[in-house]
Amino acid sequence: MQSVLILESSLEHDGDGLVRYYLTVESDRFRASTSAWGYEDEHLKFAGSLAGFPAASSSSLNYKFGTDGTGTCMLEFACLDNLGHLGVWATLEATYPVGRSGRYEHASVFHRTDPASIDQFVSEIRAFVAGSPNRAQLSGSWP
C-alpha cells in the first residue's frame, strides 16, 4: 500500500512575511489535510532540520507547522530499526473550529519511508520559489 506526505506553498505574503503552507498525508485507508501559517523561510528551516535524517538508528525529529487555533501539522520522524526503516506520524488539526463547539477536527496518520526518500523530499523543499506553485512529496508505504 502506498502513502504520501505532501507540503505545498506559493510562499506569497502580503508584506508581513507570513505564508500559508498546505500539508496533506494519505494512505490507501486514510487522508488528512490542513493549512498552516508560517514565515516565508519556514520550509527552509524544516528542510535544514530534516537534512541527513537519520543520523543514527535511535534518531527522531519533531517539527510543527502552524500555531494552535490556526491549523497545525505536527510531524514526528523516527528510525524504526537498525536497517534504516523510518516512520512518520503526521497529526493534522483543522484551521477552524467546528461551529460554536470550540473543538477542532484532527487526525493522525502513520507513514513509512526511507532515507533516500527523505533526501529527495528535502531537495524538493529547498527548490521552492516565491510566487510559484511549489510541491514537495515524501513517498512511502502504509504500515
What does this structure look like?
- It contains 2 helices and 8 strands; from the N terminus they run βββαββββαβ.
- The protein has helices at residues 42-50, 115-126; strands at residues 2-9, 18-26, 31-39, 60-66, 72-79, 86-93, 106-113, 134-141.
- The protein has a 4-stranded antiparallel β-sheet. Strands 4-5-6-7 form a 4-stranded antiparallel β-sheet.
- Strand 1 (2-9) and strand 2 (18-26) form a beta hairpin.
- Helix 1 (42-50) packs antiparallel against helix 2.
- The termini are close together.
- The relative contact order is 0.25.
List keywords for this structure.
four-stranded antiparallel sheet, mainly beta, 143 residues, globular, single chain, 15% helix
Q: What's the structural blueprint in terms of helices and strands?
A:
Layout: E1 2-9, E2 18-26, E3 31-39, H1 42-50, E4 60-66, E5 72-79, E6 86-93, E7 106-113, H2 115-126, E8 134-141
Antiparallel strand pairs: 1-2, 1-8, 2-3, 4-5, 5-6, 6-7
Q: How many helical stretches? A: 2
Overall pLDDT = 94
Provide the helix percentage: 10-25%
Give Rg in angstroms. 15 Å
Distance between the amino and carboxyl termini: 8 Å
The succession of helices and strands, N to C, reads EEEHEEEEHE
Strand order of the largest sheet: 3-2-1-8
Instruction: Please describe the biggest sheet, giving its number of strands, its sense, and whether it closes into a barrel.
Output: 4 strands, antiparallel
Counting helices, strands and paired strands, the structural category is: mainly beta
Shape: globular
Question: Nutshell version of this structure?
Answer:
By secondary structure, this protein is mainly β.
